[in-house]
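Q: My labmate handed me this sequence with no annotations at all. I'd like to see what the chain might look like in three dimensions before we decide whether it's worth expressing. Could you predict it?
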Amino acid sequence: MSAVAQGRPLVSVAAEGPRHDATEEAPRLWHITLSVSGAEAPLNDVRQGLEQLAHDHPFLLTSRYANDHAEIRYWEEARDLHDAAAVALRLWGEHRQTAKLPPWEIVGLEVIDRDTYHQRIAAGHGPLPATPVGVHPF
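A: Here is what I predict for the chain of 138 residues:
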């Protein structure tokens, strides 16, 4: 009797990876806005840390910063919102040492799918497109 007839999902085995459910969704693009804040830090140090983060994280679109807070916007590819949010929530902490980021905490997170992002832009609502791309003061 086949796996389908027995009620088990079909799975495929990647050449060098884990087993995947045949019904698994393909990755989608999610627009992430991550807000962090904390004790004041020298502006030059914040800028340098965000520039290093942009170098380390190739999908980073733009960062805005002040001496006590920053906002990072980028696109993340993930299967669903939960996966995209999980990656976003780890971003600051995982890069804090290597990028020499301030010891700030995450105070805000917005994760929206690509269609919602474009609907908001078409309707004249934020988040506005990241122009210019890069690291900029508020």
